[in-house]
Specification:
88 residues; mainly alpha
């Protein structure tokens, strides 16, 4: 029995055994060092790859004519509100 037959290809955790005779000292050591496979690894890997691809895609930038404008921020920190005016 090789390590590859009892390890998950994605997370390297130990896969469930087919019967009590499958629990050997080697399998026990692998469980201690690698832990169990929780299952659903292929789905989690696909979701992570999809999120990475979405983050890697640059969004088209809006074209601006002239220099960038600063947005006014109110005392409450909300953009678009009237700016504070200091009176002495």
């Amino acid at each position: 029995m090789g390590n590859q037959s009892v390890l998950c290809q994605v997370c390297q955790g130990v896969l469930p055994a087919s019967g009590k005779e499958s629990y050997t000292p080697l399998r026990g050591r692998l469980i201690v060092t690698n832990g169990y496979c929780a299952g659903g690894c292929a789905e989690r890997r696909a979701e992570a790859a999809e999120q990475t691809q979405q983050m890697a895609r640059p969004e088209p930038m809006a074209r601006q004519d002239g220099p960038p404008r600063q947005q006014a921020v109110s005392a409450s920190g909300r953009p678009g509100a009237a700016p504070l005016r200091v009176v002495r």
